[in-house]
Amino acid sequence: MRLKEESRNSFNMMPFIIFATIFPIFIGLLLRFPKLVIEIKEKKQWSFDWIKVAAVGIPSLYIAVLPVLSISFGVKLLFAKEFILLGNTTLTTTAGIVSGYVLLDSLKK
Per the UniProt record, which residue ranges are transmembrane (predicted)? Predict the structure, then answer.
């Protein structure tokens, strides 16, 4: 909340937008981390589920990072206008948590 208030006072919203993008991804990683530690203790061959990453991880990462991409690069991205105008932080937060979780969940043992 303090970062949001400071960003509004200084008219520099980039620190808040970057934090609002990275924090949900980090939370998603933390939610999956305990299970990953249990899987690391097993003596099996590692694999990577690229289908899960391609089907769920990349689209959710795109939605989570969309505000940063559209503001920093100023390019017209697919669905960027809808997310920026609506200020839909719930959807971007959920997408960030899902993308962080799927990133660690795709590592299989």
Answer: 12-33, 53-77, 83-104
Residues in Cβ contact with 90 at an 8 Å cutoff, skipping those fewer than 6 apart: none
In which residue are the tokens 């620190």 written? 15
- Whole-Å CA distances, 92 to 50, 70, 83, 84, 96: 22, 13, 8, 11, 6
Chain-centre distance for alpha carbon 19: 11
The CA–CA distances, whole Å, from 59 to 20, 21, 80 equal 18, 14, 13
Strands (E) in 1-109, as ranges, are 47-48, 107-108
| Domain layout of the chain by residue ranges | 20-108
Residue pointed to by tokens 């097993």: 42
